[in-house]
Design brief:
Number of helices of chain A: 11
Structural class of chain A: alpha/beta
Shape of chain B: globular
CATH superfamily of chain B: MetI-like
Structural class of chain B: mainly alpha
CATH architecture of chain B: Orthogonal Bundle
CATH class of chain A: Alpha Beta
CATH superfamily of chain A: P-loop containing nucleotide triphosphate hydrolases
Oligomer: heterodimer
Number of strands of chain B: 2
Strand order of the largest sheet of chain A: 6-7-8-3-9-10
CATH topology of chain A: Rossmann fold
Order of helices and strands of chain B: HHEEHHHHHHHHH
CATH topology of chain B: MetI-like fold
Shape of chain A: globular
Number of strands of chain A: 10
Strand order of the largest sheet of chain B: 1-2
Largest interface: A-B, 27 and 20 residues
Largest sheet of chain A: 6 strands, mixed
Order of helices and strands of chain A: HEEEHEEHEHHHHEHEHEEHH
């Protein structure tokens, strides 16, 4: 852990470039347009939070970055999303390769019904790592980065589902870290777990963000304010209408002096 | 009639109906048990019949039954499971899938004696395999196929979406997700379906009487004929030769099927516990 914090100090001096650039994004579920005209640059390293009322399309938008929406029949994307300057919706881009670089954590902790060890080793094995010593090392390193190693190092052969909810979510984070992504998408990762575990996951995000670009969808505005560097506010003004991104900026500014009245109304709890 | 009396009356009718179900099962089990238990002995199970095949043991018929059931399992498991994987995971959900599913359900409701006749015509006669374990196993596998396919399909569909997402999210391909996550997660329920189908095969009479033959024989090769327990039971009872031996055979058959059903239940329970 010590040398990681050393990296941090070095890293923060570098200016942060855009990791993901989104231009004029429209998104459709069949005939229904869910998102319209989203243009935003998400900076490398650091945490970007997506906030907004339920059903405002923030999770939909998040799933565009690893093309998880491709799994839902009838969805369509217009506009461009560049990750490291590369158009991820260009023909010839394999979503399977993309998802290796863009990891995802879900609302419901979803360990596979197998041992803790096998859960973490799953990704590396998919991508061709077969040697036991190498896997052992990846498993230990990933669990350590997910702050779970101390709790599970004696019980690695035990089923992942025997852990508590908060531990399961950290196991899922370790599982993602094991494939070394440089972006991690978190879709309301704390809404199904207890407060103490939430604290641990927020601390973890703070450690990870020095190397990984994290985007988190959250319903909890305090959480967005605590963990994020930038915040985007989404809103669907009328049912049946597509949602849009109302405002994007540094978290401190969004929460203290929002430019748009709708953002202010939401943050001060007037709706949502 | 006031409300309280009506309520009591309704309750007693419901109790009576529910009780009847249990009573029927209990009566059958007790009847067979009482009549058959005296027959059960190591000699009965492990020796050959003699005389007009009515005295002595039933060993070759037990072997025939287990042989044909095992063979049918070998045939039906890959076909049924892979068909279900295709239906649940790969096929475009639409008319074709509905037709296949309807076909499977219809296949399940074909009377087994017709399946036996069909097996006789196709395997025994047309393909000249003759009365044999393999003819009977093929015909039985037709009967088991819809059970295996539908339970496997349900099992695969019951694997939660978010577990698949976890796999896709790590960069797994569809086949990697299906083979490494979905099928293992569905395995206990798939096994349950296989075991139930096995129970069905063990107890089946009409199909095997047409396809396996009736000669008392200890089958070695799949081309050997034989006489399964159910057919033996039928002969013993209907030709009135040895009713006690018929009950003994019946009891043994019921114990085997009960064993399969209990194993299936145990697997399901254990699975539910493990998934919390």
């Amino acid at each position: 852990m010590m040398h990681v914090s050393a990296d941090v100090r070095e890293d923060t001096t570098r200016p942060r470039a855009d990791k993901i650039s989104v231009k004029d994004l429209d998104f459709y579920y069949g005939d229904f347009q869910a998102l319209t005209g989203i243009t935003v640059g998400i900076k490398e390293r650091g945490v970007t939070a997506f906030i907004g009322p339920s059903g405002c399309g923030k999770s939909t938008f998040l799933r565009c970055f690893n093309r998880m929406n491709d799994l839902i029949p009838g969805t369509k994307v217009d506009g461009t999303i560049l990750v490291d300057g590369e158009d991820i919706y260009a023909p010839g881009v394999d979503p399977v390769d993309l998802r290796r670089r863009v990891g995802m954590i879900f609302q419901q902790p979803n360990p596979f019904p197998m041992s803790i060890y096998d859960n973490v080793a799953f990704g590396p094995r998919l991508h061709g790592v077969t040697k036991k010593p190498e896997l052992d090392e990846i498993v230990e390193r990933s669990l350590e980065r997910a702050n779970l190693w101390k709790e599970v190092k004696e019980i690695l052969p035990r089923g992942g589902l025997t852990l508590s909810g908060g531990q399961q979510q950290r196991l899922c984070i370790a599982r993602v870290l094991a494939v070394e992504p440089d972006i991690m998408l978190m879709d309301e990762p704390c809404s199904a777990i207890d407060p103490t575990s939430v604290q641990k996951i927020e601390d973890l995000m703070d450690e990870l963000k020095d190397r990984i670009t994290i985007i988190i969808v959250t319903h909890n505005m305090q959480q967005a304010a605590r963990v994020s560097d930038e915040t985007a506010f989404f809103l669907q003004e009328k049912t049946g209408q597509p949602a849009e991104m109302v405002e994007f900026g540094r978290t401190a500014e969004i929460f203290t002096s929002p430019k748009d009245r709708r953002t202010e109304d939401y943050i001060t709890g007037r709706f949502g | 009639m006031n409300k309280r009396t009506a309520n009591r009356l309704a309750l007693s009718v419901l109790w009576l109906c529910a009780g009847t179900t249990v009573a029927v099962l209990g009566a059958v089990i007790i009847y067979v048990f009482v009549n058959g238990i005296g027959q059960l002995s190591p000699e009965f199970i492990f020796t050959w019949p003699h005389g007009v095949n009515a005295e002595g043991g039933i060993w070759p018929t037990i072997v025939s039954t287990l042989y044909v059931t095992g063979l049918a399992m070998l045939i039906v498991t890959p076909i049924g499971v892979l068909a279900a994987v295709f239906l649940a995971e790969y096929a475009v959900q639409g008319r074709l899938v509905r037709i296949i599913r309807f076909a499977a359900d219809s296949l399940a409701s074909v009377p087994s004696i017709i399946m036996g006749l069909f097996g006789l015509a196709l395997f025994v006669e047309t393909m000249h395999i003759g009365f044999s374990m393999i003819s009977a196993a093929l015909a039985l596998s037709f009967l088991m196929l819809p059970i295996v396919m539908r339970t496997t399909e349900e099992a695969i569909r019951a694997v939660p979406k978010y577990i698949r997402w976890g796999s896709y999210g790590l960069g797994a391909s569809k086949w990697q997700t299906v083979s490494r996550i979905v099928i293992p997660a569905a395995m206990p329920r798939i096994l349950t379906g296989l075991i139930l189908a096995t129970g069905r095969a063990v107890g089946e009479t009409a199909v095997v009487i047409f396809t396996m033959g009736q000669a008392i024989n200890l089958p070695i090769s799949p081309l050997d004929s034989g006489r399964p327990m159910t057919v033996h039971l039928y002969m013993l009872a209907m030709e009135g030769i040895n009713l006690p031996a018929a009950y003994g055979t019946a009891l043994l058959l019921m114990i085997m099927i009960l064993f399969f059903n209990l194993t299936a239940r145990w697997l399901l329970r254990r699975n539910r516990r493990m998934q919390g």
